[in-house]
Design goal:
With about 150 residues, the chain is mainly alpha-helical. It has one domain. The protein contains 5 helices and 2 strands. The protein has a two-stranded antiparallel ribbon. α1 packs across α2, α2 crosses α3 and α2 packs across α5. It is globular and about 35 Å long.
Length: about 150
């Protein structure tokens, strides 16, 4: 079973603690999606919570930066959280309505992996957007990112 240690998250000493997706996602939806991660992967509740939180932080950052053509890409583990979120299509459509101006943020994975620094850049943009960044979940950042660099997809 994969576990995640209670690791510190990034914070800005000037602005204080980072934002948490748990403040945005309804508790019942959060628990359901944590349960889905535990069902589908060998994760305990701590690891599932971390993966889901980073998935939301990534998606909410991508929505906030929609149309800027930044080539955002999640790490492999963060992408698992993204998939869990977007496969719950009704809840994902509601998230897009609320946080993406009513526009559906498409997920366009690529078969080949990029090796261009886009994952580490994305982690920095997630932190700059004020979200918690659980650095161990982004540790493949130097390797690659699997997602399409288009303006309105991730």
């Amino acid at each position: 079973m994969a576990t995640a240690a209670e690791t510190p998250v990034t914070t800005d000493p000037v602005t204080g603690p980072a934002r948490s997706p748990r403040d945005i996602v309804p508790a019942d939806l959060w628990e359901k999606q944590v349960g889905l991660l535990m069902r589908d992967y060998a994760y305990d509740s701590i690891m599932a919570t971390h993966v889901l939180g980073q998935g939301y932080a990534y998606l909410l950052t991508a929505m906030a930066l929609r149309g800027e053509g930044l080539g955002l890409a999640p790490s492999k583990l963060v992408d698992i959280g993204v998939h869990t979120i977007i496969l719950d299509t009704v809840a994902y459509a509601e998230l897009c309505d609320k946080h993406n101006g009513g526009h559906f943020l498409h997920h366009v994975p690529k078969v080949e992996m990029k090796n261009d620094g886009s994952v580490v850049k994305t982690a920095h943009l997630v932190a700059r957007a004020g979200w918690e960044v659980d650095l161990p979940l982004w540790e493949d950042a130097a390797e690659c990112g699997p997602c399409h660099p288009g303006n309105d997809s991730h």
